[in-house]
């Protein structure tokens, strides 16, 4: 069976908890302060399906019961770029974005932030150049989370790559397939 983005639509609310319980039940739990930047104003800028996915993730993050799988900390989730004197350049390296244009949901382990864009895509904010990566995006949060949970499960040897490699290929997400920075490269 060929997996498509439509197959993972609704993943965050429907299947994320079960996958995290299966592969990361013993992980440290996410703990962010109550005063972390609220997601509600950003949700208003998203299409309904994208807003539903981000709202579902946000509820889990703030619950204190979400296993750590995406470097979700007080310094990464809801990161305030302006308050921290950080620039956000779009992938053209010219257009400046603001905190209203993106919502950070975690980090990649190397100081880069995973961010949701107002078009629903998930991209990486590359900290060294303060730019949103162009070639490592995911269509939406559901697809990103499905991919990242499996990426972490493979990297921690809880899931064999062979069990998901074809799914990554058929989903055809640039963030997974990009030859030098994609998730699939780092799983091999």
From TrEMBL:
InterPro entries: Knr4/Smi1-like_sf. This is SMI1/KNR4 family protein. It comes from Nocardia yunnanensis.
């Amino acid at each position: 069976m060929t997996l498509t983005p439509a197959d993972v639509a609704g993943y965050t609310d429907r299947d994320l908890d079960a996958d995290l319980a299966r592969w990361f039940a013993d992980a440290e739990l996410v703990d962010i302060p109550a005063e972390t930047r609220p997601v509600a104003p950003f949700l208003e800028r998203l299409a309904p399906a994208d807003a539903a996915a981000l709202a579902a993730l946000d509820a889990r993050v703030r619950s204190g019961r979400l296993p750590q799988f995406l470097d979700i900390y007080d310094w990464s989730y809801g990161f305030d770029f302006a308050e921290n004197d950080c620039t956000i350049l779009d992938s053209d390296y010219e257009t400046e974005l603001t905190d209203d244009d993106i919502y950070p949901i975690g980090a990649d382990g190397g100081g880069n932030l995973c961010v949701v864009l107002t078009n629903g895509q998930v991209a990486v904010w590359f900290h060294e150049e303060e730019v949103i990566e162009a070639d490592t995006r995911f269509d939406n949060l559901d697809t990103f989370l499905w991919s990242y949970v499996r990426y972490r499960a493979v990297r921690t040897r809880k899931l064999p790559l062979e069990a998901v490699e074809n799914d990554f290929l058929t989903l055809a997400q640039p963030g997974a397939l990009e030859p030098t920075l994609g998730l699939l490269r780092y799983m091999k």
